[in-house]
């Protein structure tokens, strides 16, 4: 009997020592109030900035058109002025300019007007880049503007690009001989640049997405929103 009691005491003490040495599970860390407030602040800032910048640009454009129209019409109409007339006149001027540029006879006139912008060293680079970029979004044939998924055979890596040229006709020697190849522009995130590659047409897979949506997603590096 004393031996059994001794073993019972040892077992109890051993169990007590094991309970002391056991570590309680670490509590799950919860974000502090400051971190939560900072998350709310930046989330609200990201929501507010695009709206604020869009409204600011629209207000600048409307104010400029209204002020310009008022200065032009005051000598003719006196104190009479209808609000919104500047926007209407601006739209008419843009429509008239587009109609003139659609005529073949105005091509030579435009080339003379562009001479200062296409010959000055620094201005030439800026003007040509902006013009080519805007011309890409101008109305063209439907197959000329295409969003594709570029994937090299035998590789799992793929990237989204924009087909900028369906064939190599009109390009200098060395590029014009590229048969059955397309030019694909690969935009970089946040519009810090991009690359144009010439690849076989079989490497591209059309994507059911507009060019505008693809450029918008490329701007934010295809970042997923909280809603998705």
Largest sheet: 5 strands, antiparallel
Number of strands: 5
Largest sheet, order of strands side by side? 4-3-2-1-5
The succession of helices and strands, N to C, reads HHHHHHEEEEEH
Task: Walk me through the structure.
The chain is α+β, with helices and mostly antiparallel strands. Among the domains are: 36-113, no CATH class; 145-219, Roll (SH3 type barrels). It is built from seven helices and five strands; from the N terminus they run H-H-H-H-H-H-E-E-E-E-E-H. A five-stranded antiparallel sheet has the order 4-3-2-1-5. Helix 2 crosses helix 3 (85-101). The longest helix has 45 residues, at 33-77. The radius of gyration is 33 Å and the shape is flat. It starts with a helix and ends in a 9-residue tail after the last helix. The relative contact order is 0.06. Mean pLDDT is 75; it is low at 1-9.
Give the key terms.
228 residues, alpha+beta, SH3 type barrels, 5 strands, disordered N terminus
Q: What is shown here, in short?
A:
53% of the residues lie in helices and 14% in strands. The chain is built from seven helices and five strands, in the order H-H-H-H-H-H-E-E-E-E-E-H.
Topology summary:
Elements: H1 2-21, H2 33-77, H3 85-101, H4 106-113, H5 115-119, H6 121-136, E1 146-151, E2 158-165, E3 181-187, E4 194-200, E5 204-206, H7 211-219
Antiparallel strand pairs: 1-2, 1-5, 2-3, 3-4
């Amino acid at each position: 009997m004393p031996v059994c009691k001794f073993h019972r005491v040892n077992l109890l003490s051993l169990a007590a020592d094991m309970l002391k040495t056991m570590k309680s599970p670490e509590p799950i860390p919860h974000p502090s109030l400051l971190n939560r407030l900072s998350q709310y602040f930046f989330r609200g800032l990201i929501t507010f900035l695009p709206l604020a910048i869009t409204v600011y640009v629209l207000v600048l454009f409307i104010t400029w058109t209204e002020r310009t129209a008022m200065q032009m019409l005051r000598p003719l109409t006196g104190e009479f002025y209808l609000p919104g007339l500047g926007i209407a006149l601006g739209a008419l001027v843009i429509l008239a300019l587009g109609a003139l540029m659609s005529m073949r006879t105005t091509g030579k006139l435009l080339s003379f007007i562009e001479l200062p912008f296409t010959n000055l060293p620094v201005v030439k680079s800026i003007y040509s880049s902006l013009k080519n970029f805007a011309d890409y979004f101008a109305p063209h044939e439907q197959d000329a503007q295409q969003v594709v998924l570029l994937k090299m055979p035998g590789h799992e890596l793929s990237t989204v690009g924009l087909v900028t040229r369906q064939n190599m006709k009109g390009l200098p020697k060395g590029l014009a001989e590229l048969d059955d190849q397309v030019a694909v522009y690969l935009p970089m995130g946040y519009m810090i640049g991009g690359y144009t590659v010439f690849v076989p047409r079989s490497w591209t897979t059309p994507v059911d997405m507009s060019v505008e949506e693809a450029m918008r997603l490329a701007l934010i590096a295809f970042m997923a929103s909280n809603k998705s």
